[in-house]
Amino acid sequence: MTEPVWGPVHQDIVGLLADHPADVPAVVDHLTKLQDLLVRLPPLEASCPLADFNKLYLVITTTVLDGLYDDRFVDPVFLARLDVEFAARYFDALRFWTESSPSTPKAWSCLFKRMRGPDARPLPSAAAGVNAHINYDLPFALVTTLESLESEPVDGSDQHRDYLEINRIFAERIPELRRGYLDHWQLMIDMVNGDIDDWYQGELVEYTRNVAWRNAQKIWRCRHDPEARECERTRLDDNAALLGRLLLSPLGAFLQ
Amino acid sequence: MASDVDTAPLVGRADTMAALRSALLDDVAPGHTAAVFLTGESGVGKTRLLAELSGRLRRVGALVLTGSCLDIGDASPLHPVRQALRRLDAELTEARTSSVVRGLLQVFDQETPGPDGAGALLERVSQGLHLVAAGRPLVLVLDDLQWVDRSTRQLLLYLLAGLGDLQLSVLAAVRAESLQGAHPLRRVLTELRRLRSVRVVDLAPLDRAGTDELAAAIVGGPLAPEAADRLWQRSGGNPFVVEELARDLRDGRDDLSDTLREVFLARVDALPQHAHAVVHAIAAGVEPVEHWLLAQVVRLPEEELIEAVRAAVAHRLLVGADEGYRLRHRLVAEVLAHELLPAERAALHRRYAEALTSATAELHQARLAHHWRLAGEPGRALPAAMAAAREAERLHGYAEAHRHWSAALQLAAAPAAVPADVERPPPVEVDRVDLLQHAAEAAHHCGEHARALDLLAELARDPAGPPACALHIRRARYLAAAGRSAPAEAEYRRALESPDCTPRERATAAAHLAELLLHLGRYAEAGEQAREALQLATEVPGSTSEVVLASAALGYSEAWLEDPEAGLAVMRRALETAERSGRPEDVACAYLHLAELLTGPLNILEEGVVVARRGAERVAELGLGRTWETRLLAIATNGLFRVGQWAEAEKVVAAALRHRPSGADAVELLLARCRLSVGYGDIEASDRDLEAVATMLAGGGARHVLPMLILRAGLAMWQGRHDVARQAVQRGLTESRSDDVIVLATLAWHGLRAEAEAHASRTMAVDPTAVRRLREVVDRVTRKSERAGAPVRYVADGFLALCAAELSRLDDHGDPELWARSAAEWDLRNHPYPAAYSRLRQAEALLVRRRRPATAARLLTEAYRMAQALGAVPLSSEIRTLAGRARVTLEERTAADPRPAPRQRTAAPAAAPAVDELATLTAREREVLAAVAEGLTNKEIGQRLFISERTIGVHVSHIFDKLQVRTRVQASAIFLRHGPE
After folding, report:
1. Nearest-Cα residue of chain A relative to residue B730
2. Which numeric CATH code is attached to B14-204?
3. What's the distance, CA B602 to chain centroid?
4. What is the mean pLDDT of residues B559-579?
5. How close A82 gets to chain B, by Cα (Å)?
């Protein structure tokens, strides 16, 4: 009998993932519960690399929720649904991983594999999660959200502005978490938004925050074509996985 | 013919089968709907499970329809449903059902494009299905739902929401891999899986024991431990893989293949030559490939062909059924794809296209276009693509039409891959501008706004394209539909300034611009623009639509700018104009705007209700029952609800739903009916409507989510489920726009009420964060409503009074003064429901403080009388409970019927004489007669009642017939004898 994927908290995590949160308050609740479970996962417990990401994600999502209550966004329906769709993809990846399914996105599995060790530094771990989530999940979450709202990814729209507002949330919340590593974080956030080629070319600072948006526009155009859509999905998954593995390699530790 | 050489047993699915059977049949209450969505990776056995279940359901008396969706992205709308019907037709032996099925198939064939065509088609299809089912439970089984077209998706949601009035279960299989990324079904399933009537079942691979059992069944005995281990490792429990690997193992080919791909590769290699040709031909076709078609493509003598097919089936590469052949697995196509040279593949497609040209088949045009394109002959694919586009438009499938038009555009620009041939017909001449126009319009209709705008840009670059002004207007229309108001405004202004603008175009642009400005909240500018549009329209004959549109904008603008009388007068004149010279739609539109103006910003509810109902009658006469009548009746229902005539509202909404509306109209009515059910405390009915609304909203329609959440919170409140109410409010608050003051105020009241009642009844702890946030919302609403127009402020103030009073319940036991103020606010608005509720709370607060018990008793009596008159059961019972505690005696009307008052009220209006000669008259005829008795002429009556003079004449002659009189004087005498009510 092999040990279950999530060790002693397996049943709890399976139970949690059976539920599909439908609104932002429920997403925050979900992430909070998940955090409590992840830090109990042996052998790393509190230093579980996924917990590092989950904690960051929880902080960001809580800030988004506050923003929704506080009238921070122009089109809250869009942002609330985007947030739910976005989170759903993280939970999906966890579900696939739980079932040891070959469908687990590669972008995520490189982080999940490290869950039981060897230990990675918290900063690159969190960044690897952010990488998978933004570079892989976000464009698809955007397309699904816009489609269900019968809208479109149009530059300069209210929705686009709200979307960019999230970048500001990252910028606001990250200094609290960075404990003195602002420059590295800044670089990381810029980097994880871009394809790895762009990163090497050093062009990213001006435009890569918009890469997920651009990718969403690209998927949007081929969304009725199952083959092209799948092709795009694989491309994003491969790219994100490449960057994720890099972040979790000894090279990633320079960030800390 | 044998569809399969030998079939493996179904292993490890007994529990799933039983659960699905009860979900789809046994547990479905009569008249209800249910759905099961089966997800799983390919090869996990979804199709097999569908087939087994279909058989089982059929055996217990269900009528099972089975269809599958196609992966050619440019299929035809509603294809799976039509395919299912054709399959049923082929199987049927009873003549009666068969003719019903053919009748339904003809509905599709005879469909013509037109306004509200899509909705009417849904209605006709559901009626047809009703007849086909003939009282049996109906199960619609759909495979490969990941490729479903938009029209079928809408049909499913419509039927599942119960709008088709059909007891139906849906069983559909979805390939899990396809749901990754951004598949449109993802969101639909996320929404649906929350409903009680829907299950999303993830079909997992077999476990180790299941794997062993299946392998043993195929091999004919248990495997050696080592072989069993290897099989388990390689297959991962995927039954398809287990089966194929076990077969190879049995036949001694174990070492050859490690993966499924290799299994197929080895089999393809082993095929005889003719069979090889057959599988290649099928791989190039659109499945299922009919036998006659295959024969023409492969060009073998009949006997050799059959032998070749048999060999391919025996090698487990092909599956055959009555309707045609398909490949056994997607992987077979992948394996084969590497074997053919491009020229060979093109030749196959050419043969398909040639064969299909001379005979009609399913999806005729779409397939022709597909094969000619892949045969490298864009010139011959083009007319087929255009025909397929028109065919899709005929069935209102604009998404598919748009794709066909786009393909046609590409084909028109593509050079032929084969040299011209004198034998072939010359390529058709196609007008590119015409193609662009069609493509743009189809894109606009299916919500591809950005694409529609791109196509317009191309059209603008074409020298043969339409003139500048027409383009500006069209661009503005597309932009407005996309919600991009600022650029839309600019385009309308450009149209107005354009030198080639005709007077008609100018009137159109001005009227639409006025409407746009109104939506942007720029009331003064909207009014000005509307006046200009009306001015321009006077010079253009036949511009009634523009007059109606501009008048509505002007009417609203005046109403917001606090000159309601002027606004109303404009809108009334527009209605007269529409009646005099407009199309039926203009009349309907004018009635709608007038009713909305009255029940909305002007808050003249009674008159608004009368106008809405009168309008509904009128548009039904004009043949616009399905769309406009239901819209007008929705307005009437909501107005009647607010003024407290719930029983009447219930009748109106039932009448409207008999039209089986679809889309947003249906949602609006379901919400209206649910509002009544919540008030009545009919939990089952409310729940059912909320589920139906949620089902419809799974397909889109964000603007109805908030009303749904408010109702959910209201219902939960009466059930004492304050946590559910809190959740609904929280979701609502995170999804509402800050400028939607009324929605925010309503949500805040529900939220505070949930916390206050939780506090009072101790059902859950008060959430201080929630309360803090609700206070902030109240503050924000207060600030914003001060700046809003008077009509918004008017409604918001009512809710703010309720919020303030609920807050006082959280601090202590409620401030009677605040509740008194709230009661007064709602009395002022003539809205008895919240007024009665406020009195209850005021009495409660007084009683707790032991102050003025007599006042409390009076308030309770009043509240009870009001609640009873409404039929508001839960509110009444809460009042009774408090009265019991305070020893206040309430007068009961009738103990037996829980909804006594309203039923009585509508049954007997006023004091009618024992023998009423007027009883035979309709309500409308009585109105006319009353006006006749006043001495008005038909023309004057027409003006008063907003109907044409001619219609009045018809009413008058009916009145004469029924009363058996010949003159107006005699008729008036009878009317006066019975006394005006």
Report:
1. A25
2. 3.40.50.300
3. 30
4. 86
5. 11
Chain B positions contacting chain A at CB under 8 Å are 41, 71, 73, 146-147, 176-178, 180-184, 186-187, 190, 193-194, 204, 236, 399, 403, 447-450, 482-484, 700, 702, 705, 727, 730-731, 733-738, 773, 776-777, 780
Q: Looking at chain B, which residue has its C-alpha nearest residue A23?
A: B731
- ipTM score assigned to the predicted complex: 0.85
How far is Cα B906 from Cα B212, in angstroms, rounded to an integer?
Answer: 70
**Any CB–CB contact under 8 A between A102 and chain B?**
yes
Question: What does the pLDDT average to over B564-593?
Answer: 89
pLDDT of residue B903: 35
Nearest CA in chain B to A81: B735
Pairing of strands B33-40, B138-143: unpaired
Q: Cα(B843)–Cα(B883) distance, rounded to whole angstroms?
A: 9
pLDDT for B5 equals 46
Which residues between 202 and 241 in chain A have a beta carbon less than 8 angstroms from any beta carbon of chain B? 219, 223-226, 229-230, 232-233
A140 contacts on B by Cβ (under 8 Å): 180-182
Pair of tokens at residue A211: 């890469």
Q: Where residue A200 falls among pLDDT bands split at 50, 70, 90? A: very low
Contact by Cβ (8 Å): B28, B137: yes
Give A150's contacts in chain B (Cβ within 8 Å). Answer: 447, 700, 702
The per-residue pLDDT for A224 is 79
Distance (Å, whole) CA B402 – CA B947: 41
Are B182 and A139 in contact (CB < 8 Å)? Answer: yes
Helix, strand, coil fractions of chain B, as percent rounded to 5: 70, 5, 25
Chain A nearest CA to B619, separation (Å): 30
Task: Name the class of domain B917-977.
Answer: mainly alpha
Contacts of B41 in chain A (CB under 8 A): 101-103
Q: What is the pLDDT of residue A90?
A: 95
Contact check, Cβ <8 Å, A101/B41: yes
Closest partner CB to B178 (pick from A147, A225, A226): A226
pLDDT band at B322 (very low <50, low <70, confident <90, very high): confident
CA distance B906 to B646: 10
Q: Are A140 and A233 in contact (CB under 8 A)?
A: yes
Pick from B186, B194, B780: which is nearest to A71 by CB?
A: B780
CA distance A1 to chain B (A): 11
pLDDT, tens digit (0-9, with 9 covering 90-100), for B596-623 = 989 988 888 899 999 999 999 999 888 8
A66 has a chain B CB within 8 A of its CB: no
CA dist B800 and B822 (Å) reads 9
The band of A190, judged by pLDDT with boundaries at 50, 70 and 90, is: low
Report how far residue B864's alpha carbon sits from residue B155's, in angstroms, rounded to the nearest whole number.
45
What's the predicted TM-score (pTM) here? Answer: 0.83
The stretch B565-577 carries a mean pLDDT of 89
Cα distance between residue B98 and residue B658, in whole Å: 27
Read off the pLDDT of residues B722-768 as tens digits, 9 standing for 90 and up: 999 999 999 999 998 888 889 999 999 999 999 999 988 888 889 99
| Edge-first strand listing for the sheet containing B168-175 | B63-68, B138-143, B168-175, B33-40, B198-202
